[in-house]
Structure formats: structure tokens, C-alpha cells
Amino acid sequence: MAGGAMKYRHLGRKSSHRQALLRNLVTSLFEHESISTTWPKAKEAQRLAEKLITMAKKNTETSRLNASRVFFKPHDLMPKLFGPLRTRYLERPGGYTRVLRIEPLKPDQAPSAILELVDGPKDMRFAMTAATLARQRGDERGVTELTSNNVKKVTRYRKDGEKELEELIRTFQKMDVVEGEAVKEKRA
What stretches in the chain show pLDDT beneath 50? Predict the structure, then answer.
């Protein structure tokens, strides 16, 4: 049957090239905790990254062996995957990564995205929620329902999430005060 549903994105590459590309993307993701790439590549790398974190949560000899076969730098990344990343996601039932669409990075205007590990130090949604809360608390309208729902989502599985969020909000509020004073000085 022509045009049937595909099991995965082929990414215009041979099987060996595609597997090497995805292994490279996942290695970079676990090394840096956030990468920028095209949207289709990010979605395919997301699938592999989620499987690796699930293997790490099982923490068996077989899962360690299978995970080491994926990484290009297994000696550097296996302790990280089976150490801090495993403990970070032990209580989370799934959804360890997030794909955020961004403006096209390449000159050919290919759809781009950021692939990041959730609840990490480079969690973009956590920072965006903190910035929005800092702005809305200073506003006379107050915090919206959408923002309060986002606060629940970003702090739900994060250890000391509310405390970290409040610290980041205070940082954004200080930055806003400093920027506001700088704008006033320029106008004068």
C-alpha cells in the first residue's frame, strides 16, 4: 500500500547514516542537556533519548550495556546517565525531554527546534515561566490562569521546584529594576 504510515522519519539518509546522526544528537544532548537542530531530527532524537532514560531508570546490567552501545562517548556519559540523570527522573513517569520550536536557524529556512532535558539547569520553559511570573506580579492585573498552570507543570517533579522558581523570579525582578533605571537614565 503506497503512502502508508511510516514507523519513523527517514531524514533523507541511509539507515547507517541516520543511526549515526541520531546517536550523535543524543550524545550531544546528554553532554550539554540542550541542543539546537532541525525539528524532524529533534523529534527522532527525542524518541531515542526517552528510551535511554527509561533504560537508566531500570538500572540493570542489560540496560547499561544497551545504553553504552548508543553513546559515542560511553565512558564520559554513562556515569552521568546512570547517576544524576537517573535520580532526577526516578519519580517522573515519562516525558523526560522537551522539543521547543524556534525561528529557523539555517539559511534554507528549515524548521528548527531546541531539544532539552526537562528539569535540568538549562530548562527553557522553567526560565520562561519565571520571567512571565516576574512580569505579571509587577503588573496590576496579576497572575493569569495559564501562568499558574505552567507553574504547576514546571515544579511538579522538580526537587525544591517552588524554591528554585522563587529565586529565579527574584533574579528577573532585579534585572527588570536595573534595566528600568538604565532606560530612565538614557531618557534624561
Answer: 183
